[in-house]
């Protein structure tokens, strides 16, 4: 995650340097720091910004001719953003129903083309894994599947009523194998039962081996510095050289299989653990703008750019769509009708500003206006909630949700606070308060929550996305760390 793109109701898209913000020394003023906790001290590093222009429709008659100057551009609030993983281009939703495809790295902000199909504001944009197609949701209640190579809508998914509030592909992932906490050596974190040597971790438990210094093919050659063939002056091959050779082979094998081995250690000083995961706001940027919406949006969405590209795996045939009337629909793009539909039961307000999948794709979580979060089991059917998580009275509507990669915790954003909810049944039964309040946000509608694929950082964006609600128009960045019990 290198850059963070935001869009706001003022019609501007902004690009922030994420690492420059969390490691920078730009302080917040006294007035800016006043609403936040003491740990929020740094401001975001703004790299650039440009207009989210509303292009004129070719052939549409104009009553009054307006000179085409930069001062007379018609700007559109940014209600949605989707950014390509290398930040070569991005998609931004328009209030008129169009979708701008804009360049980022080359000729920043230039509109390449505009996709037109919706009749109202585009509230959701979700890129597919291959980034050759995108799902768009709008206030007109329609969801379209766009082919970005041709610029045409391939499929449409109608909604009976209600503005589309969220669209998300179903995740596909194995069970999370939790990484246990250990001391850090050279900035590398390892498992509790795994040793570290020279900053290199191994997954086979051999923590006394040195780091590999040459390819595996060259492990047989250990000549001296002066060209001798006596194995570094030690005569015939001894047990030490054999141990080194074996160590190099095992290390290389573990490195090649690192992505498949969930016990492989993460780089940096932030890891997830099977114990209580908490969010800290120390050394994180607080950014106040008249509009941080859209790509984040204070209308509000967040989009980030990472040099590693999209790491999460999703089912490109199944997606979840929620609407503001509280209805949840699971769609199969190969079917003309939704495969599952859930409507708010009696006593639940017909309202849903955000919904999300669990990490393994087996559960759905929907935020409600009465301060509750409903959980639906996909295999049991989503007609009835399997359980309901209730927050204290006065917490306000739940406007944003995000599941942590460990599959155990859910971040819920309500009007008053961010809460980290423990989804494990044991914690719910034995804990009087099954959630942890995340300091930072207070008193405003949260438009979007973003957790990076490594589970190290969390970003919250305040905004109402064009709907009702008071907002603080602030982006806050958090560091996710593990706290051992």
Notable characteristics:
single chain, 485 residues, mainly beta, Methylamine Dehydrogenase, Chain H, 4-stranded antiparallel β-sheet, 4 helices, 33 strands, 35% strand, globular
Overview of the structural elements:
This is WD40 repeat-like protein. InterPro entries: Beta-prop_SPT8, WD40/YVTN_repeat-like_dom_sf, WD40_repeat_dom_sf, WD40_rpt. With 485 residues, the chain is mainly beta. The chain has a single domain (3-57, 72-176, 275-483), classed as YVTN repeat-like/Quinoprotein amine dehydrogenase (Methylamine Dehydrogenase, Chain H, 7 Propeller). The protein is built from 4 helices and 33 strands.
Short description:
By secondary structure, the protein is mostly beta strands. It is built from 4 helices and 33 strands. The model is unreliable at 61-65, 176-241, 247-298 and 306-311 (pLDDT under 50).
Give the overall average pLDDT: 76
Give the number of helices: 4
Straight-line N-to-C gap: 30 Å
Might you state the CATH topology name? Answer: Methylamine Dehydrogenase, Chain H
Given the C-alpha coordinates, what overall shape results? globular
Q: Give the count of structural domains.
A: 1
CATH superfamily: YVTN repeat-like/Quinoprotein amine dehydrogenase
CATH architecture, by name, is 7 Propeller
Rg calc: 25 Å
The number of strands is: 33
Largest sheet composition: 5 strands, antiparallel
Helical proportion, percent range = under 10%
Structural class: mainly beta
Poorly predicted parts: 61-65, 176-241, 247-298, 306-311
Domain Transcription factor spt8 beta-propeller: 1-219, 308-480
Keywords: Repeat, WD repeat
Protein name: WD40 repeat-like protein
Biased composition (Polar residues): 195-205
């Amino acid at each position: 995650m290198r850059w963070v793109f935001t869009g706001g109701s003022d019609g501007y898209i902004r690009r922030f340097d994420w690492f420059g913000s969390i490691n920078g020394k730009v302080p917040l003023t006294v007035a800016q720091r006043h609403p936040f906790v003491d740990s929020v001290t740094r401001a975001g590093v703004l790299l650039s910004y440009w207009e989210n222009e509303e292009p004129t429709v070719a052939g549409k008659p104009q009553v009054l001719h307006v000179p085409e100057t930069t001062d007379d551009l018609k700007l559109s609030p940014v209600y949605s953003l989707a950014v390509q993983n290398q930040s070569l281009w991005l998609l931004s939703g328009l209030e008129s129903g169009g979708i701008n495809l804009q360049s980022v790295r080359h000729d920043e902000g230039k509109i390449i083309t505009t996709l037109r199909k919706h009749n109202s504001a585009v509230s959701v944009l979700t890129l597919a894994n291959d980034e050759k197609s995108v799902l768009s949701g709008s206030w007109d209640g329609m969801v379209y599947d766009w082919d970005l190579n041709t610029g045409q809508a391939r499929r449409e998914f109608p909604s009976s009523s209600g503005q589309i509030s969220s669209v998300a592909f179903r995740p596909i992932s194995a069970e999370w194998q939790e990484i246990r906490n250990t001391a850090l050596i050279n900035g590398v974190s390892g498992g509790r039962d795994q040793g570290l040597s020279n900053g290199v971790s191994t997954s086979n438990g051999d923590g006394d081996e040195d780091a590999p210094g040459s390819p595996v093919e060259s492990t047989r050659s250990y000549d001296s510095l002066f060209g001798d063939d006596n194995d570094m002056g030690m005569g015939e091959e001894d047990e030490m050289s054999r141990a080194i050779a074996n160590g190099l082979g095992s290390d290389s094998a573990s490195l090649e299989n690192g992505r498949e081995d969930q016990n492989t250690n993460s780089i940096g000083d932030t890891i997830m653990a099977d114990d209580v995961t908490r969010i800290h706001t120390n050394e994180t940027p607080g950014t106040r703008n008249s509009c941080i919406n859209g790509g984040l949006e204070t209308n509000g969405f967040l989009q980030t750019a990472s040099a590693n590209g999209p790491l999460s795996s999703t089912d490109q045939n199944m997606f979840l769509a929620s609407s503001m009337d509280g209805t949840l629909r699971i769609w199969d793009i190969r079917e003309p009708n939704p495969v599952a539909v859930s409507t708010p039961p009696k006593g639940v307000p017909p309202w849903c500003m955000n919904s999300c999948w669990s990490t393994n794709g087996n559960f759905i979580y929907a935020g409600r206006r009465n301060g509750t979060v409903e959980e639906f089991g996909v295999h049991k059917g989503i007609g009835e909630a399997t359980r309901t998580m209730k927050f204290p009275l006065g917490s306000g509507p739940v406007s944003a949700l995000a599941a942590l990669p460990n599959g155990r915790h859910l971040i819920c954003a309500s009007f008053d606070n961010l809460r980290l909810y423990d989804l494990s049944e044991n914690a719910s039964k034995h804990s009087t308060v099954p959630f942890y309040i995340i300091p930072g946000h207070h008193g405003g509608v949260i438009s979007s929550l973003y957790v990076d694929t490594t589970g190290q950082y969390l970003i919250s964006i305040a905004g109402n996305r064009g709907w009702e609600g008071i907002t603080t128009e602030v982006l806050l960045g958090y560091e996710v760390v593990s706290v051992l019990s």
